[in-house]
C-alpha cells in the first residue's frame, strides 16, 4: 500500500541512528556456531527486517537480543549493554520478544495474557492506582488495534485461531510498552490475508508509538513492505544491508542473496 | 591399547579400536570370576542381572519416551514364573528362561495397549500402581506362589564338567544371557522397528505422517521392555534361589528407574553403569554412615544428577564437550530448525527425553539472579 | 445401611488424608511439570518440626504457624538448592532428584527422631458426631474442612491475585513468561514454598490419625498419586474430589467385595485410574491441552 | 559413533570392575579355613581365636523396616559392655553390622560378604523372614552358624534341613498359643475378630491361633489384613467392628498397633477385649494412644520392657541403660528393640560360654542343647531350652494386662510346649 517513510531515519543523529547496535556478535548452540561476527544497527523508531535463508541465524539473532541465547561481542540498546542479561532483565530494559511459534499462555484467557504482558508495570507489588489505570488504558489500546481480541477477551488463548494467537502475542508484547519489539516469523502458519492484516497493525503501532521493531521473516516481500531498512543474513554473517525499498527494487541483489528460497515463498505460496 | 589410541584417524584404526576394546572388555569380563572373591563375583552377577532389566526399561523410557514405574512388577513376574516352574513342576532351570521371557512379553503386550492412550506422567503412575498392587496379589495366590513366605528353590548348580564354583558358573550364565540381551537391545534399536521407535519419541506426529505404525511400535516397545525385565527376574531366581512378594515392592520399580536415569537414559551402556550404581552405592553409603545409609545414598543420587544431568553415561561427553567448547552457550531449548532435529537412528546419547514439559526454558541460576534492573522502561512518545 | 454409611464415613476419613497430600502434589506439578516423590516426606519432616516445637514447650497454636513459616522457607530453599541446579535437565532427571530427596529426608528423620511412633497433638476435639447410628469423628470432619478451606484459598490465589496469574503464566509457558519480564526462578521458588506449606498442613492434620514416624507418608503417597491422577494432575479441586473418591471406593470394596478383601483393595485405585484415564486421559477435572496449530 | 559406544562400554565395564577391586581381596585367599586340634579336631575355627571372636549381623538400617535397625545398637552395646569387662571367656567380640534394607538379594550379598570377606565366626542375627529365608541355604551350605535369627516365623525350628540356623524369640505360633490358652480359660465362648499384617508374621500368628482354638468354644468370626505399605488400618477396624466380636486379636507392628488401639478407643459402641501381640506391646506404642485409652489391654511377653517402671531397679536393666548411654548415646533406651538386642546378645553370650569346642560346630551344638538357661533381660520364669527335635529356645511367655501407666504381669508363665506339644509347621 503506502511507501515506508524513510525520511525520518535519514535525518536521525548518531545516537538515534545506533539505537540498537550489534557489533561482532557470535552465538551458537552447543558446538554449532550460528552467528559468526554480526554487525548492524537499527535507528530509533525504525522497522528493520532481517532476512535470509533457513538456518542463516535470523532467529538466533533475536534470541540473543532478548537474552534467550548467550552471545559474545556487543549489543547495546540506547547505549546499555544487552549481552549477559537474562530474558527477564532484557524485558525490563524494554525489549519485547514475540518468539517463533507465538508463545502465548494457552491456559490463560486473552485478557490474562495481556495482563501478564504488563507484569513489569504492575507486578506482584502493585505500583499505585495511576499505573493500574494506565494498564487498563493500554488494554483498551490493544483491543483497538486488535478488535478480534476484544470479542474473545474471556476465552482461553489456546482456543484462538493461529492468527488470533499471533495477534495476542504481539498485543502481549506491546503491553510491556517496549522500546524494542522483536517479531520472529509472525507469518508462520498464517493465512496470507491474516498475515497482511497483522503486518498492517505492526506498521500502525510503529507509526503511532514510535516503537522500534525488528522483524525476522522468511516472506521477504511482506517484510520489506513495512520495513524501513533490511539486513540480509547468510550462514551467520551479514551479506547485505540497506533501505528496504532499495533491496526490494534491486531484483538482482534479491536473486543473488535472497535466492529462490526467500522470494519464492511470497505470501505463503508454494515454490 | 595406548599405541592405538595415539594414532587416530585412519580407517584401519577406526575399526581396530572398537574391536580391541571389545576384546579387552570381553577378556576382563571372562577373567573377573577367577580373580575376585566369590561374593564379589556374586555382586558382579547382580550388576549384570540388573543391567538386563535396565536395558529393557531403557528401550521403553530412554528410546521410546514412555515412563514406566512398574518394571519391578515385570521383574517379579519373571522371577515368580521361574520360581513356580522350579518349585511346582521341577522343570529345570533352562526351561524357565524362555517361559519367563515369553510370559512377560505377553504381559507387556497386554499393558502396551492401554499404555497407548496414556502419556508421560499418567503412564508412570498407572504402572506404579500396578507395581504396588502386585505384592498383595502374589500373597493372595498362595497355593501357587507360596504366599507371603515366598518360595525357596534350587539355585543354578555348575555341571561337573565345568570345574567351576557355583558363583563362577552363575556369573558366566548370567554374563551370557546379559550379552545376548544387550546385543538384542542394540539390534532392536537399529532395526526398522527401533528406528521407528526413535522417530516416535522425537516427534510423534511427524513419525505418524511418515507412515510409522505408531500404535504397533509403541505396544511392541512395551512388550520387549517387559520381556527384558522378566528375563532379569528369571535370572534373579536362579541366583538368589528365593522369591517373596515383599522383595518386589514398588521400591524396586523406583530403584530401577533411578538406576536407569543415573546411568544414562537412551544410552546403550548406561544400563550397565546404572546397575553398578544401584548395586554398589548402597554398600558404599553404609561404609560412610552406618547410622543412616539412606542419608548418604539419597545425597549421592542427587549429587550424580547435579554433576551428570544426562546420567553417568553422558558424563565423559559432557566433560569433553565443556573442555572443547567455550561459550557461546545456549540457555534456550534446542533450535527448532529442521537441521537440528536428529535424524532417526542417529546416536541418541545426548537427546533429552521428550516429555510434557519440554517447553520449559532452562533457567540458568547465574542469569536469573543477576542484579535487578530498576523501574520498567517507558517508550518515549513525542 | 448404617454399616454401609459408616464405611463411607471411614472412606471419607482416609480420602481426606489422601486429598490433603494430593493438593501439594498437584501444586508442584502444576507449576513445575514434575512429580515430586519427596512431597510426602517433606510433609513428614514439617510435622516433625511441629512436634519438636510442641515437645519443647511451645503452645500448639503458636507452633503451627511457626511450622508453616519454616516449611514455606524450607520449600523455597529446597527449590533454590536442590531443584534449580537440574532445572532444564531432562524431566526424568528432576524426578529422580526428588526420589533421592525422598530417601534422604526419610533417613534423616529416622536419624534425628528415631523410628519410634510419636504422639502428635490433635487440634480437633475427641469424640464425634452421631447421625442416627453413623459416627463421624470430629477429626475426620476437621480434616475435610481444613482441606476444603486450603483448596478454596488456593483457588482464590490462582484465579484472583496477580501472583496467582503470574504463577499460572509460568506454569503454562515459562519461556514466554521470562520474555514478559517475570522472574521465573522466584516464582518457582514461591511455588515450592507454597507446596511445602500445603504439605505441612497435610502432615500436621494426618499425624494424629496415622501417628507420626518417618514412614508415615510413604503409604499415603501412592493413594495421593491415585487421587491426583483421578482428579486431574493440574486441578486442586480434582485432587480433593479424587482423594475422597479413592478413599471411599477402596474402603467399600475392601469391606464388601469378598473377592477383593482388605488385602487387594490397593488394586482399586489402579482400576479406577486406568478406567478414568482410558475414557478421559486428563482426569476428571483436568484441562485437556487446548491447542490449535 | 559406533566406536565411541564400544569404547565407552569397555570403559564402563572396567570401571565396574575397578570399583569391585577397590573394596576387595583376590580370589584364592579364601580357601584357608583354619581347623582346631585336640578333641575338636577338624572343626572350623574361622573368626575365632583365643583373644577374639568375630560376629556379623544383617539388619535393615535403611528402607521401610529401618525401625528394627536399632536392634543392632542394643546388640553392639551389649558386646561393648562385655568387652570392657574382659570379653566372653577372654575373647573380645568384634561385631560387624551390615545393612540389607530389608531386601533379600541385599541380604544374600551381605551374608556372603560377612562370610567370605569379613570371615566372621557366625552370622549372629539376620532380621526378618524374607532376608533370613534368602540366606539360610547359603549359610548352611557354608556351615556357618546362624544363631538366634530376629524373626519369629516357625520355619526356623521345624525342619531338619538347616541345622546351622536357629531362632530365638518365641515363635509366632507359640505366642498365638498363649493367647488361645488364655481365652479358652478366661472366655471359653469368645468370638474373636483378628486384625493381622499380611505377611509371614501375621499369617503365622493367625494360623497358629486358629489351630490352637480348634475344637474349643473360641471362634474366629472376622479377620482383616493390612499391608505394611497401607497408610492406616482404620477401614479394617471399621469392618471388624461390624462383627461385634467380643475379643480383638491385634497382630500388628508398632505404628499400626497404635492406630488400631486408637481406633478401638474411639469407637465407643464396640468394646472388645483387646489383645495386642508382643511386637506392638511396647509402652512406646501405647503411650501415643494415651494411657487412659488402653486400660485393660492384654498382651504376652518374655523380656523386660525398658519403658516399664517396674524394672527400674532391676540390676540387668540398670546395666542395660548405663551401657546404652555409654556406647549408643543416640539410641533411645526406652525403645524395646534396643532391649531386645541386649537380651538376644546376652543369650548368645550364654551359648558361647556353653560351647564345648571354640568352633563353629561347637556353637551349632551349644545353641541346640540349652537347658533352662537364665538370661537377665528375660522375664522371671522364662528360660531358654532346646534339645533334640526342639529348635525353639524360647517358648514360654507371660500374660500381662495394662493398668494405670504400666503393664502388670498376671498368671503363671505359660510354657506352650507343655500345653500344646512341640510347634509343628
Automatic annotation (TrEMBL), chain A:
Gene Ontology molecular functions: ATP binding; ATP hydrolysis activity; branched-chain amino acid transmembrane transporter activity
Signal peptide: none
A GO biological process held by the record: L-amino acid transport
CDD domains with a match to the protein in the record: ABC_TM1139_LivF_branched
Protein origin, superkingdom: Bacteria
Domain ABC transporter: 20-260
One Pfam family, short name: ABC_tran
Keywords: Amino-acid transport, ATP-binding, Nucleotide-binding, Transport
SMART domains to which the protein is assigned, alphabetical: AAA (SM00382)
Family the UniProt entry places it in: Belongs to the ABC transporter superfamily.
Record's protein name: ABC transporter ATP-binding protein
UniProtKB/TrEMBL annotation, chain B:
Topology within the bilayer: Multi-pass membrane protein
Residues spanning the membrane: 20-36, 42-60, 67-86, 92-113, 120-138, 169-189, 220-244, 250-280, 292-315
GO cellular component terms listed in the entry, alphabetical order: plasma membrane
Superkingdom of source: Bacteria
Positions of the UniProt region annotated as Disordered: 326-382
Keyword Membrane: yes
A Pfam family recorded for this sequence: BPD_transp_2
Gene Ontology molecular-function annotations: branched-chain amino acid transmembrane transporter activity
Main location: membrane
Keyword entries, A-Z: Cell membrane, Membrane, Transmembrane, Transmembrane helix
Record has Transmembrane as a keyword: yes
Protein name: Branched-chain amino acid ABC transporter permease
Location(s), subcellular: Cell membrane
PANTHER family: HIGH-AFFINITY BRANCHED-CHAIN AMINO ACID TRANSPORT SYSTEM PERMEASE, HIGH-AFFINITY BRANCHED-CHAIN AMINO ACID TRANSPORT SYSTEM PERMEASE PROTEIN LIVM
Composition-biased stretches (Low complexity): 340-349, 362-382
UniProt xrefs under InterPro entries: ABC_transp_permease (IPR001851), LivM-like (IPR043428)
From TrEMBL, chain C:
Short name of one Pfam family: BPD_transp_2
Keywords assigned: Amino-acid transport, Cell membrane, Membrane, Transmembrane, Transmembrane helix, Transport
Transmembrane helix as UniProt keyword: yes
Organism placement in taxonomy: Bacteria, Bacillati, Actinomycetota, Actinomycetes, Kitasatosporales
Source species: Streptomyces populi
Keyword Transport: yes
UniProt GO cellular component terms: plasma membrane
Source organism superkingdom: Bacteria
GO MF terms held by the record: transmembrane transporter activity
Name of the protein: Branched-chain amino acid ABC transporter permease
Family from the record: Belongs to the binding-protein-dependent transport system permease family. LivHM subfamily.
Transmembrane segments: 12-28, 60-82, 94-116, 136-158, 187-210, 266-285
Automatic annotation (TrEMBL), chain D:
Keyword Membrane part of the UniProt annotation: no
Domain Leucine-binding protein, chain residue ranges per copy: 52-403
Keywords, in A-Z order: Signal
Position of the signal peptide: 1-24
Similarity section: Belongs to the leucine-binding protein family.
Protein name: Branched-chain amino acid ABC transporter substrate-binding protein
Organism, scientific name: Streptomyces populi
Lineage, broadest ranks: Bacteria, Bacillati, Actinomycetota, Actinomycetes, Kitasatosporales
Amino acid at each position: 500500500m503506502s511507501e515506508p517513510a524513510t525520511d525520518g531515519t535519514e535525518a536521525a543523529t548518531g545516537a538515534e541512528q545506533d539505537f540498537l547496535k550489534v557489533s561482532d556478535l557470535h552465538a551458537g548452540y552447543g558446538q554449532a556456531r550460528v552467528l559468526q561476527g554480526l554487525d548492524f544497527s537499527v535507528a530509533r523508531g525504525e522497522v528493520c527486517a532481517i532476512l535470509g535463508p533457513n538456518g542463516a541465524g535470523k532467529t538466533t539473532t533475536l534470541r540473543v537480543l532478548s537474552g534467550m541465547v548467550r552471545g559474545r561481542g556487543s549489543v547495546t540498546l540506547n547505549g546499555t549493554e544487552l549481552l549477559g542479561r537474562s530474558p527477564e532483565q532484557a524485558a525490563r530494559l524494554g525489549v519485547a520478544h514475540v518468539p517463533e511459534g507465538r508463545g502465548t499462555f494457552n491456559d490463560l484467557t486473552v485478557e490474562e495474557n495481556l495482563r501478564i504482558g504488563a507484569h513489569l508495570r504492575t507486578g506482584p507489588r502493585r505500583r499505585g492506582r495511576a499505573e493500574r489505570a494506565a494498564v487498563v488504558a493500554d488494554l483498551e489500546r490493544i483491543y483497538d488495534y486488535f478488535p478480534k481480541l476484544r470479542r474473545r477477551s474471556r476465552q482461553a488463548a489456546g482456543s484462538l485461531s493461529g492468527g488470533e494467537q499471533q495477534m495476542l502475542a504481539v498485543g502481549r508484547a506491546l503491553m510491556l510498552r517496549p522500546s524494542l519489539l522483536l517479531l520472529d516469523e509472525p507469518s508462520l502458519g498464517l493465512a496470507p490475508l491474516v498475515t497482511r492484516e497483522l503486518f498492517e497493525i505492526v506498521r500502525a503501532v510503529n507509526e503511532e508509538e514510535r516503537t522500534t521493531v525488528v522483524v525476522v521473516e522468511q516472506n521477504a516481500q511482506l517484510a520489506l513492505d513495512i520495513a524501513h531498512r533490511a539486513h540480509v543474513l547468510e550462514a551467520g554473517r551479514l551479506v547485505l544491508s540497506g533501505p528496504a525499498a532499495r533491496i526490494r527494487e534491486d531484483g538482482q541483489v534479491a536473486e543473488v542473496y535472497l535466492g529462490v528460497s526467500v522470494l519464492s515463498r511470497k505470501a505463503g505460496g508454494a515454490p | 591399547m595406548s599405541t592405538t589410541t595415539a594414532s587416530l584417524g585412519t580407517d584401519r584404526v577406526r575399526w581396530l579400536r572398537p574391536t580391541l576394546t571389545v576384546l579387552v572388555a570381553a577378556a576382563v569380563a571372562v577373567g573377573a570370576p577367577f580373580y575376585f572373591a566369590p561374593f564379589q563375583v556374586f555382586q558382579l552377577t547382580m550388576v549384570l542381572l540388573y543391567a538386563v532389566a535396565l536395558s529393557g526399561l531403557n528401550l521403553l523410557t530412554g528410546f521410546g519416551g514412555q515412563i514406566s514405574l512398574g518394571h519391578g512388577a515385570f521383574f517379579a513376574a519373571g522371577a515368580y514364573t521361574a520360581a513356580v516352574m522350579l518349585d511346582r513342576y521341577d522343570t529345570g532351570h533352562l526351561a524357565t528362561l524362555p517361559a519367563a521371557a515369553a510370559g512377560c512379553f505377553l504381559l507387556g503386550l497386554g499393558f502396551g495397549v492401554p499404555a497407548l492412550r496414556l502419556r508421560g506422567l499418567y503412564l508412570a503412575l498407572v504402572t506404579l500402581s500396578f507395581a504396588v498392587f502386585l505384592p498383595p496379589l502374589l500373597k493372595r495366590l498362595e497355593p501357587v506362589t507360596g504366599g507371603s513366605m515366598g518360595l525357596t528353590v534350587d539355585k543354578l548348580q555348575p555341571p561337573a564338567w565345568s570345574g567351576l564354583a557355583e558363583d563362577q558358573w552363575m556369573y558366566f550364565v548370567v554374563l551370557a544371557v546379559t550379552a545376548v540381551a544387550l546385543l538384542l537391545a542394540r539390534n532392536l534399536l537399529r532395526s526398522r522397528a527401533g528406528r521407528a521407535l526413535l522417530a516416535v519419541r522425537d516427534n510423534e506426529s511427524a513419525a505418524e505422517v511418515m507412515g510409522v505404525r505408531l500404535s504397533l511400535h509403541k505396544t511392541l516397545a512395551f512388550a520387549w521392555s517387559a520381556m527384558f525385565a522378566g528375563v532379569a527376574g528369571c535370572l534373579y531366581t536362579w541366583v538368589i534361589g528365593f522369591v517373596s512378594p515383599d522383595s518386589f515392592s514398588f521400591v524396586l520399580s523406583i530403584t530401577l528407574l533411578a538406576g536407569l536415569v543415573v546411568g544414562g537414559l537412551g544410552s546403550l551402556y548406561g544400563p550397565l553403569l546404572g546397575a553398578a550404581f544401584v548395586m554398589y552405592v548402597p554398600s558404599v553409603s553404609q561404609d560412610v554412615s552406618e547410622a543412616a545409609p539412606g542419608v548418604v545414598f539419597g545425597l549421592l543420587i542427587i549429587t550424580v544428577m547435579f554433576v551428570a544431568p544426562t546420567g553417568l553415561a553422558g558424563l565423559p561427553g559432557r566433560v569433553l564437550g565443556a573442555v572443547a567448547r567455550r561459550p557461546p552457550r545456549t540457555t534456550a531449548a534446542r533450535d527448532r530448525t529442521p537441521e537440528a532435529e536428529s535424524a532417526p537412528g542417529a546416536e541418541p546419547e545426548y537427546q533429552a527425553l521428550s516429555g510434557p514439559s519440554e517447553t520449559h526454558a532452562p533457567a540458568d541460576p547465574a542469569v536469573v539472579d543477576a542484579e535487578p534492573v530498576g523501574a520498567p522502561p517507558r517508550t518515549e512518545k513525542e | 445401611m448404617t454399616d454401609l454409611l459408616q464405611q463411607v464415613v471411614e472412606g471419607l476419613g482416609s480420602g481426606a488424608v489422601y486429598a490433603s497430600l494430593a493438593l501439594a502434589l498437584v501444586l508442584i506439578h502444576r507449576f513445575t511439570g514434575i512429580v515430586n516423590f519427596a512431597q510426602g516426606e517433606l510433609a513428614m519432616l514439617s510435622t516433625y518440626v511441629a512436634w519438636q516445637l510442641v515437645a519443647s514447650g511451645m503452645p500448639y497454636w503458636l507452633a503451627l504457624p511457626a511450622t508453616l513459616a519454616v516449611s514455606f522457607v524450607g520449600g523455597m530453599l529446597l527449590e533454590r538448592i536442590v531443584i534449580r541446579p537440574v532445572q532444564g535437565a531432562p524431566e526424568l532427571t528432576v524426578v529422580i532428584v526428588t526420589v533421592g530427596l525422598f530417601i534422604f529426608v526419610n533417613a534423616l528423620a529416622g536419624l534425628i527422631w528415631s523410628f519410634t511412633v510419636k504422639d502428635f497433638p490433635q487440634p480437633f476435639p475427641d469424640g464425634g458426631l452421631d447421625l442416627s447410628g453413623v459416627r463421624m469423628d470430629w477429626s475426620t470432619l476437621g480434616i475435610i474442612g481444613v482441606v476444603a478451606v486450603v483448596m478454596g484459598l488456593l483457588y482464590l490465589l490462582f484465579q484472583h491475585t496477580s501472583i496467582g496469574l503470574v504463577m499460572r503464566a509460568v506454569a503454562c509457558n515459562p519461556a514466554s513468561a521470562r520474555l514478559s519480564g517475570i522472574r521465573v526462578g522466584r516464582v518457582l521458588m514461591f511455588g515450592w514454598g507454597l507446596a511445602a506449606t500445603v504439605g505441612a498442613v497435610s502432615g500436621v492434620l494426618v499425624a494424629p490419625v496415622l501417628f507420626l514416624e518417618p514412614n508415615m507418608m510413604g503409604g499415603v503417597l501412592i493413594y495421593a498419586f491415585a487421587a491426583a491422577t483421578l482428579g486431574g494432575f493440574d486441578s486442586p479441586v480434582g485432587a480433593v474430589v479424587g482423594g475422597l473418591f479413592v478413599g471411599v471406593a477402596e474402603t467399600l470394596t475392601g469391606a464388601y467385595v469378598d473377592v477383593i478383601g482388605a488385602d487387594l483393595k490397593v488394586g482399586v485405585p489402579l482400576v479406577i485410574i486406568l478406567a478414568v484415564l482410558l475414557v478421559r486421559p486428563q482426569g476428571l477435572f483436568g484441562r485437556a491441552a487446548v491447542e490449535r496449530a | 559413533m559406533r566406536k565411541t559406544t564400544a569404547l565407552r562400554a569397555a570403559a564402563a565395564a572396567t570401571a565396574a570392575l575397578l570399583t569391585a577391586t577397590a573394596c576387595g581381596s583376590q580370589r584364592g585367599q579364601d580357601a584357608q579355613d583354619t581347623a582346631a586340634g585336640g578333641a575338636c579336631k577338624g572343626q572350623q575355627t574361622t573368626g575365632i581365636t583365643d583373644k577374639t571372636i568375630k560376629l556379623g549381623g544383617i539388619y535393615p538400617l535403611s528402607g521401610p523396616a529401618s525401625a528394627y535397625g536399632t536392634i543392632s545398637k542394643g546388640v553392639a552395646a551389649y558386646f561393648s559392655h562385655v568387652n570392657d569387662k574382659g570379653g566372653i571367656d577372654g575373647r573380645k567380640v568384634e561385631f560387624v553390622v551390615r545393612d540389607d534394607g530389608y531386601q533379600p538379594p541385599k541380604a544374600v550379598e551381605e551374608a556372603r560378604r560377612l562370610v567370605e570377606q569379613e570371615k566372621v565366626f557366625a552370622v549372629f542375627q539376620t532380621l526378618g523372614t524374607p532376608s533370613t529365608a534368602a540366606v539360610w541355604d547359603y549359610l548352611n551350605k557354608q556351615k556357618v552358624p546362624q544363631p538366634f535369627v530376629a524373626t519369629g516365623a516357625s520355619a526356623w525350628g521345624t525342619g531338619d534341613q538347616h541345622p546351622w540356623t536357629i531362632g530365638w524369640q518365641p515363635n509366632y505360633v507359640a505366642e498365638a498359643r498363649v493367647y488361645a490358652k488364655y481365652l479358652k480359660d478366661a472366655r471359653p465362648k469368645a468370638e474373636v475378630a483378628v486384625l493381622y499384617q499380611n505377611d509371614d508374621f501375621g499369617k503365622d500368628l493367625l494360623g497358629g491361633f486358629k489351630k490352637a482354638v480348634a475344637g474349643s468354644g473360641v471362634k474366629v468370626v472376622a479377620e482383616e489384613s493390612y499391608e505394611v505399605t497401607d497408610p492406616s488400618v482404620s477401614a479394617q477396624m471399621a469392618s471388624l467392628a461390624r462383627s461385634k466380636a467380643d475379643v480383638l486379636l491385634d497382630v500388628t507392628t508398632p505404628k499400626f498397633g497404635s492406630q488400631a488401639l486408637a481406633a478401638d478407643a474411639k469407637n465407643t459402641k464396640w468394646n472388645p477385649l483387646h489383645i495386642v501381640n508382643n511386637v506392638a506391646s511396647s509402652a512406646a506404642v501405647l503411650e501415643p494412644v494415651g494411657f487412659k485409652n488402653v486400660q485393660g489391654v492384654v498382651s504376652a511377653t518374655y523380656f523386660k520392657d525398658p519403658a516399664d517402671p517396674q524394672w527400674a531397679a532391676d540390676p540387668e536393666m540398670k546395666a542395660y541403660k548405663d551401657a546404652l548411654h555409654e556406647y549408643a548415646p543416640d539410641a533411645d533406651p526406652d525403645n524395646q528393640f534396643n532391649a531386645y538386642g541386649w537380651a538376644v546378645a546376652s543369650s548368645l553370650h550364654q551359648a558361647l560360654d556353653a560351647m564345648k569346642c571354640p568352633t563353629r560346630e561347637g556353637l551349632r551344638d551349644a545353641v541346640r542343647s540349652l537347658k533352662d538357661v537364665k538370661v537377665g533381660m528375660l522375664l522371671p520364669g522364662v528360660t531358654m531350652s532346646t534339645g533334640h527335635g526342639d529348635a525353639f529356645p524360647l517358648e514360654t511367655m507371660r500374660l500381662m494386662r495394662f493398668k494405670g501407666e504400666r503393664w502388670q504381669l498376671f498368671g503363671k508363665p505359660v510354657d506352650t510346649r507343655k500345653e500344646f506339644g512341640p510347634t509343628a509347621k
